[in-house]
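Batch manifest, entry 17 of 40.
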Amino acid sequence: MNIADLRKSYEKAELSESASHADPLQQFQQWLQEAISGELPEPNAMTVATVGSDLRPSTRVVLIKGFDERGIVWYTNFESRKGRELAGNPFAALQFHWVELERVVRIEGRVEKVSDEESDTYFHSRPLDSRIGAWASPQSQVIDSRTVLVTNAAKYGAQFLLNPPRPPHWGGFRLMPDGWEFWQGRKSRLHDRLRYLKQADGGWLRERLAP
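Output type: structure tokens
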């Protein structure tokens, strides 16, 4: 098989100015709901891109845990690579790719930590194993073997029993969008791309990009 010969014709839908929302958050909510209703695999999965002090970009996949007019929220270890990079450069890009719907959403903006109250509320809603895992995993650090994780999980499980507190190094980030792009695959590679840029008055400029 020649990988260069792999092709697909995108013909499921279209994205027009007249049929899209003037507010990108409403457009995102509609598309996310359609991905969930369509029972796509992990419709809440998104790629997070950050840039470190060495100017090298890095990406990873996380799960969106909330969104509203303030921004897009996910939770992680603040001492992970992405946490350290966001501490030094508080800007990031997110991407959702719903393959079955032939759609991509890209979001860019500044990132801040959510409040302690928000992080506490979400942390205590997680399954017990996940709460213990937040203590057990020194995320992004080199470890000798998986035994380190298993040993740590057993230690913190015995220490905290059924009520582990939220680790001080774990919590939420919120990306506050200043730019959105909605991509809908179209036939002959003449895809639809609508970009929304935040304006000084808080409104959004919607414009079409060439594919």
